[in-house]
Amino acid sequence: MRIDLHTHSTASDGTDTPAELVRNAVAAGLDVVALTDHDTTRGHAQAVAALPAGLTLVTGAELSCRIDGIGLHMLAYLFDPEEPELSRERELVRDDRVPRAQGMVAKLQELGVPVTWEQVARIAGDGSVGRPHVAEALVELGVVPSVSDAFVPEWLADGGRAFVGKHELDPFEAVRLVKAAGGVTVFAHPLAVKRGQVVPETVIAELAAAGLDGIEVDHTDHDAPTRAKLRSLAAELGLLTTGSSDYHGDRKTVRLGEYTTDPEIYGEITRRATGAFPVPGAGGTGR
Asked: Are strands 184-187 and 3-7 parallel, antiparallel or unpaired?
């Protein structure tokens, strides 16, 4: 089995629609794919409607969190999307995305960059607007050569010249909320230092003690020594280890299925979940 547990669609900051994503997952030879858009479950219904036979969909989301001034992402799998407390927190994060992006546009204009809100809104389309959309605007304007080059202190990195914060969950609260909604939590790319400051291992240990289920180890932003370090830490803390592409369509160069999760780990994730269950494909035709 080939299992990719971290992907994004146009419901947040990917370039594939949810229907396109599940079809592309089959073309990439995947057996299981998780749709984990940022702070939203809006793409799930379309993905289910289009789900091809032979592919299983894991519903999820990537929750925006922050602790001690450091941003981090928490992957949440197979939770009840209607659970009111978690749903309310996701709405607070999503509602803050537009004013935050508008604030980044204003800062960029002050820095002499001719970006406009209309340009960013066009790029975001129906998705939950975020930094990658602002970054793509910088690429369009020739300010930076790629989206990843916008995530530096000069531009959009945490604390960068054009950075604007938003409402984000405390990660311990995120773990509590997801568990209460019957879901499973995995700390996304925890040592991706190229993205900015990361939390110390002591915080990962505290999260494990608070109920964190796993950490994402095999990821494009983790080099081989980092993966080895994380595997050792996971073994010490009793955490599951996953591998995922963090696919964003054309917005990033990573391919679907570039990194995958061991079937036994996937099985343990599904055994722990009580809020929702993986959806087997039935040859959907939705668009």
From this structure: unpaired
Cβ-based neighbours of 123, under 8 Å, separated by 6 or more: 133, 136, 137, 140
As to burial, measured by CB atoms within 10 angstroms (0-12 exposed, 13-18 middle, 19+ buried), residue 283 is exposed
d(Cα 150, Cα 137) in Å, to the nearest integer? 10
Q: What is the DSSP string of 188-211?
A: -STT-GGGS----HHHHHHHHHTT
Q: Which residue has the tokens 């994060």?
A: 93
| Tokens at 159, concatenated | 């604390």
Tens of pLDDT, residue by residue, the chain (287 residues): 999 999 999 999 899 999 999 999 999 999 999 999 999 999 999 999 999 999 999 999 999 999 998 999 999 999 999 999 999 999 898 888 899 999 999 999 999 999 999 999 999 988 888 899 999 999 999 999 999 899 999 999 888 999 998 889 999 999 999 999 999 999 999 999 888 789 999 999 999 999 999 999 999 999 999 999 999 999 999 999 999 999 999 888 899 999 999 999 999 999 999 999 999 987 655 55
Among 40, 49, 42, which residue's Cα sits nearest to residue 19? Answer: 49
